[in-house]
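Our consortium's second objective concerns turning raw sequence data into structural hypotheses that experimental partners can test. To show how far this objective has progressed, the report includes one record in full. It was chosen at random from the queue rather than selected for favorable results. The single chain below, 91 residues long, was entered without modification.
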Amino acid sequence: MITPFTEDDEVNPSVLESLVERLIEKGIGGLYICGTTGEGIYMLVLERKLVAKTVIQKVSQWVPVIVHAGAVAVKDTIDLSQHAKKMVHLV
């Protein structure tokens, strides 16, 4: 799925939540965030964590969420993977 941004190039959590709701209403079988559309690799780690947290908390176990955690730096990949795992256990 795409990641919505504000005019100031910040992740837009409220639009992101609306997008998730719309996709679920339309019967989507799962979500893949920060990956397919390619923006994830260009986002800051904190932005990617915000997207993961927002989407995972919003779906509340309705559909599976795949979090793209690949990054240029291995440490960032590990950090993003650990964050995604932690978010799943909070829901």
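The partners drew two points from this record. The longest strand covers residues 31-33. The chain has a mean pLDDT of 93. Both points have been shared with the crystallography group to help prioritize constructs.
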